[in-house]
Amino acid sequence: MLLSIQDLKVAFRMGKQGGEMQRQLAVKGISFDVPENSTVALVGESGSGKSVTAMSILNLLPENAEREGRILFQGKDLLHTGLRELQAIRGKEIACVFQDPMSSLNPVFTVGQQLCEPLIKHMGMSPRQAWVRAEELLHEVGIPEPKRRLQAYPHEMSGGQQQRVMIAMALACEPKLLIADEPTTALDVTIQRQVLELMAKLKEKHKMGLLFISHDLGVVGEISDHVVVMRHGEVREKAPVAQIFSNPQDSYTKALLACRPSLTENPARLMVIDDHIAGKAAQQHGKAKDPNAPVVLRAKGLKKSFWFKEGLFGKKEFKAVKGVDFELKKGHTLGVVGESGSGKTTMGLTLLRLHEPTGGEVLFDGQDLLKMSGPDWQKMRRRIQVVFQNPYASLNPRFTIGQTLVEPMEIHGIGKDHAERLARATALIQKVGLPEAALHKYPHEFSGGQRQRIAIARCLTLNPEVLVLDEAVSALDVSVQAQVLNLLKDLQDELGLSYIFISHDLAVVKFISDEVLVMQHGDVVEQAPVQELMANPRQEYTRKLLGAVPRGYQAAA
């Protein structure tokens, strides 16, 4: 057995209270094995303990962590291994690939320098030998022009390429075990597909074990041999991947499988974990959309270019958005999909004039948003709002939630006094499913899903008619994602809101959208009602996007 975790407990010291040390138990006595040349997936929501379990293997936990049990790697108990010996194992025998490559790669060193470091340290290579091997590694993970890319810095590469560099670094010393912690969560479906196929291929080539951590059972079904399902620090179920998908035993496993949006089914609401465990049935029919609803927003030939210096005096134009046309009806949702670099986010930000456009017009209530200025534009900004991808960065950490909600009302003169604004903030925080007590707390006291609800409530303070949602659920667990998507649908039905929903996840877009706009390299390559586009995509690029969506074990089998 390559790795055997036996009765592992992990607690975090939280400081003294009443003279006694308080401990938070994050992992509560779990056991599982990773055989040689096989892939074992740890699955669960945020807070389930899966990443803590993985980081316990090499003791990459903070100083206030305490571990008990046994972690046997090729028979050696890593829990009782000295730091010097553990450092020799890290990177050489056991390597890690983390979720966010940009925070894992050093921004001040080139890719080549970072690849050479473990080769020189662990493999005893000379700098020249390491440089040759680094080029081979970049070629192996599918990065074009590897010799030139060795000289590049991380910020000069796309997210998918950065993740490939991380995989190359992890494989540099030919480890026996690779730990991959949410390695595809932030990637587009096509890049995610490439990274999953790459990891599976490299695992076979190098005959190594792979511990793959994810919250998405659709992804897990395509790469794993065995699955370990965790919740609240405990193992709820472990079984071969075929059994998990065809005959799950635990109610939590069944709920995880049920709450992800599907490309085949079309429920009015997504099931959430607690609903499924409680045995509630899925709601199949939602509120019908009015096909004759008035158009609230119309874009004509919307363009956005960026200019870069070229040579001493020259400029080079990069056309990010090349002339987009669409209509958005009241109470409807326009989904915008495409890979990174397709121009979908730039298009959304240009609509809001967070990027100044270089051409076209955007008609809202009969007026061109792109030509407005001063007080007229300020009034119009109330009516079209944005929810960003990262709720951690979009909320002011120094403001309470109450201050966050009241401030935009004060700026735009909504409500006659502070008491009225606070009453409105209270009603809105409850509308998005949070208690009134949340108003007195700060953003760091909430989970990612709760913060996204707060961001939505902040938008609603101004009575908007249109919301631009830029990857608003892509950073969330599938169960939390389901809650936020259901909330968006409820708010649309209740308030008649219109959404521009930007995403790389076609299953999510199918659930929430009425019409879909597919972008590639700044152009709209296809536009159609959602059911028509999913059933009969006309463009090869759209078919490629659909084909890359993880469908779980059965589709892969």
Provide an overview of this structure:
Helix 5 (127-140) packs across helix 7, helix 7 runs parallel beside helix 8 (189-206) and helix 16 runs parallel beside helix 18 (448-460). The two termini are 26 Å apart. The protein folds into two domains: 3-277, P-loop containing nucleotide triphosphate hydrolases (Rossmann fold, 3-Layer(aba) Sandwich), CATH 3.40.50; 296-550, Rossmann fold (3-Layer(aba) Sandwich). The strands form four sheets. It has a six-stranded mixed sheet, with helices on both faces. Strands 16-17-18-13-19-20 form a six-stranded mixed sheet, sandwiched between helices. The longest helix is centred in the middle third of the chain and has 18 residues, at 189-206. Strand 4 and strand 5 (76-77) form a beta hairpin. It contains 23 helices and 20 strands. With 557 residues, it is of the alpha/beta class.
Kindly estimate the percentage of residues that lie in beta strands according to DSSP: 25-35%
- Largest sheet data: 6 strands, mixed
CATH superfamily of the largest domain: P-loop containing nucleotide triphosphate hydrolases
**DSSP strand count:** 20
Strand order of the largest sheet: 6-7-8-3-9-10
Shape summary: globular
Unreliably modeled segments: none
* Number of structurally distinct domains: 2
Q: Please identify the structural class as seen in this structure.
A: alpha/beta
Pfam families: ABC_tran (PF00005), oligo_HPY (PF08352)
Keywords: ATP-binding, Cell membrane, Membrane, Nucleotide-binding, Transport
InterPro entries: AAA+_ATPase, ABC_transp_ATP-bind, ABC_transporter-like_ATP-bd, ABC_transporter-like_CS, Oligopep_ABC_C, P-loop_NTPase
Family: Belongs to the ABC transporter superfamily.
